[in-house]
Amino acid sequence: MLSLTEKNFQSREDLLGIVREIALKQGYATVIRRSKADKYVIIGCDRGGNYRNTNLLLEDKKRKTASRLINCPFEIWGKKKQEGFWKVDIKNLSHNHDPSTDMSGHPYYRRFSEDEILRIKQMTMAGGRTVVQALLDELGQGGFTYNIEYDQNDHLTHLFFAHSISIAMTKSYSNVFVMDCTYKTNKYKMPLLDIIGVSSFNTSFYSCFAFMQKEEEEDYVWALSMFSKLLGIDNHPVAIISDRELALMKAIESVFPRTTNILCVWHIEKNILTNYSGLHDFENGTTNRVSCQNDIEYSEHLADSGLHHFENGTTNRVSCQDEGPLVHRIAY
Predict the structure, then answer these.
(1) I need a surface site. Which of 101, 216, 256, 267 has the fewest CB within 10 A?
(2) How far is Cα 115 from Cα 98, in angstroms, rounded to an integer?
(3) Separation of alpha carbons 164 and 43, rounded Å
(4) Which residue from 271, 313, 309 is spatially nearest to 290, judged by alpha carbons?
């Protein structure tokens, strides 16, 4: 293993990080004494130097201070070479004090990390509450009913919420619903399941929303179980329209076994166009031809089935909806 003086460091930060890591293992803390951008950096012990009273006007009333600075001689130089890498030049490796057994006594190791600083800012903006607490308070004040789920580390994994007006609409028009996931690139990387209801006038209304940790079957089952509670005991929709999301389809079958799951015709047509080029491929065309033919027959079956789904065959109601300011704030 190369010693510090033999090692080439790619950057100033790389050099500083290694020196701090070695010092920490030995029970010491290092600080930057002086530096010049892209030239050099002088590293010393955090107990180096002497205390200086800068309040000259109150010299006669100088407060007795137990300074941590005891002129520790430890000193390392870092220099940038013409080749672009950095090298260490050791000046003095000795300390005039014993190593620390508890590093919390050193100011450097009491500093907040970037994540901790961000969390403090968020809690300050939220009036001292955590972000989740502030969100739940806002949902409650906005007339929303919600359910939440945490993992073993108390991290929020699922959030289901619906407005009181939406709940009333959901109970009144419980036959047809459209489901799809949107906002998959939100701040917290959590997919949002958007459930839109269809009234007897063939108009859309918001039913409910669910943030999920992942888009797996168990996540969808949790969300649909919450949705089932809104509908009422043993009340299954006549039809649910979705795209060909297998995890969602399995969850629908599990939670609503008497409900017909209609696949989005737009996605079917897109599938056909995607596979069309392979229809004339004699080596691979058979599979594509059968797949497309099944999709076409499925679409025709829906048209002739007489199923009371108000002629809804796509998930466009979800993708075209504007969820409103509160959902936008939660999503981003």
Answers:
(1) 101
(2) 32
(3) 62
(4) 271
Contact 48, 73 (CB under 8 A): yes
* Tens-digit pLDDT string for the chain (332 aa): 458 888 999 999 999 999 999 998 899 999 999 999 889 999 999 988 876 655 555 444 444 445 678 899 999 999 999 999 999 999 999 999 999 888 777 777 666 667 767 767 766 766 677 778 888 888 988 999 999 999 988 889 999 999 999 999 999 999 999 999 875 556 778 899 999 999 988 899 999 999 999 999 999 999 999 999 999 988 999 999 998 889 999 999 999 999 999 988 776 666 666 666 555 554 454 444 444 555 555 555 554 555 554 455 555 555 555 555 555 555 54
- Retrieve residue 145's tokens: 């009913």
Tokens 């594509």 sit at which residue?
288
Q: Closest Cα partner for 242 from 203, 268, 216?
A: 268
